[in-house]
């Protein structure tokens, strides 16, 4: 997993900050928020694809983290711990929205059955020359492709590819087995390859 | 036993080694095609990282300020809730303490009253039976057991006799 300072420095000061938070010092928590807000926001944004929702969910996640920081025992890094909260908040929100929308947004279950695990997949969309794709269009294509994944598959692919987290860290964050993480990663990759091949081949 | 999907993912991420790697690659029908797909998956990973990492939060300081405000609000709510919650047990405790004090006071008052009545009565009898002429050093000791309020044990010295009609009650 990436860190913004050297691991030793980050761990020491992080633990110290956590201890101060547990003693009720909100200033220490402000420092943790400052340290992780960008990454937390970016992660949530990549899950929900909306600035305002990402902002609100990031706020909720940090407030929730503050409320439960007394239960943090330091068995994992603070980042893994807060990521678990972030993922729970975001996945819950996505699930609720899915229920409100009638469950039509994600189609992982159908796609998983349709994909031959060993097959070389074919792009669905017509290839577009990269010269014609503006940056926001690329982003829109990615967002659309990611939005077709279930919250759990989104979480796994983003944690692996963007945050460079290890399998066991992802499993710990999502509260599932390493095998489940690997399996979700397999299908998420297949599906994104399927949807985005024309984009990333050209860019 | 790992499923194909797990092995494939581990192979893509270079997490297989030794016999496991050899066996897995041998099990693939077309190793070259699989390697091409591995390169493609890597490309996808790099592409996603490049495109999705760039998302920046605007108004970072305002974000922190808002979190701070919400936490302050939560703490205020909690302390308010806490003080409301505290009054209920406090009332219970006050009530229980007052009741206990009342019971204790009543018990002590009644005990003293009973003990006073008994002592006075017995002392009168005993004093009436002491003959200061015949037994100038006579003394009276009274031992009262409280395990059974109806029983009183008397130990007397220098007492000539108890009245025949007296039964220590």
The strand count of chain A comes to 0
How far apart the termini of chain A lie comes to: 26 Å
The outline of chain A comes out as globular
Which structural class do the helices and strands of chain B define?
mainly alpha
- Helix count from the secondary structure assignment of chain B: 4
CATH topology of the largest domain in chain A: Arc Repressor Mutant, subunit A
Structural class based on helices, strands and sheet pairing of chain A: mainly alpha
Cα-based radius of gyration of chain B, to the nearest Å:
48 Å
The percent range for strand residues of chain B is 5-15%
- CATH fourth-tier homologous superfamily of the largest domain in chain A: Winged helix-like DNA-binding domain superfamily/Winged helix DNA-binding domain
Question: Which overall shape of chain B is indicated by the principal axes computed on the Cα atoms?
Answer: elongated
Main sheet: strands, sense, barrel of chain B = 2 strands, antiparallel
Distance between the termini of chain B: 90 Å
Strand content of chain A: under 5%
Give a quick set of tags describing it.
heterodimer, A: 203 residues, mainly alpha, Rna Polymerase Sigma Factor, Chain: A, B: 169 residues, two-stranded antiparallel ribbon, 4 helices, 6% strand, elongated
Overview of this structure, please?
The complex is a heterodimer of chains A (203) and B (169). With 203 residues, chain A is mainly alpha-helical. Chain A has 2 domains: 7-100, RNA polymerase sigma factor, region 2, helix turn helix motif (Rna Polymerase Sigma Factor, Chain: A, Orthogonal Bundle), CATH 1.10.1740; 108-202, Winged helix-like DNA-binding domain superfamily/Winged helix DNA-binding domain (Arc Repressor Mutant, subunit A, Orthogonal Bundle), CATH 1.10.10. Helix content of chain A is 71%, strand content 0%. Chain A contains 9 helices and no strands. Chain A has helices spanning 7-22, 26-48, 51-68, 78-100, 108-114, 135-147, 151-161, 167-174, 178-202. Mean pLDDT of chain A is 82; it is low at 2-8, 109-113 and 117-124. With 169 residues, chain B is mostly helical. Among the domains of chain B are: 1-55, no CATH class; 99-157, no CATH class. Chain B contains 4 helices and 2 strands. Chain B has helices spanning 4-12, 18-27, 31-52, 60-129, and strands at residues 139-143, 153-157. A two-stranded antiparallel sheet of chain B has the order 1-2. The longest helix of chain B is centred in the middle third of the chain and has 70 residues, at 60-129. The radius of gyration of chain B is 48 Å and the shape is elongated. The two termini of chain B are 90 Å apart. The model of chain B has no long low-confidence stretch (mean pLDDT 76). At the A-B interface, helix 2, helix 3, helix 6, helix 7 and helix 9 of A face helix 1, helix 3 and helix 4 of B.
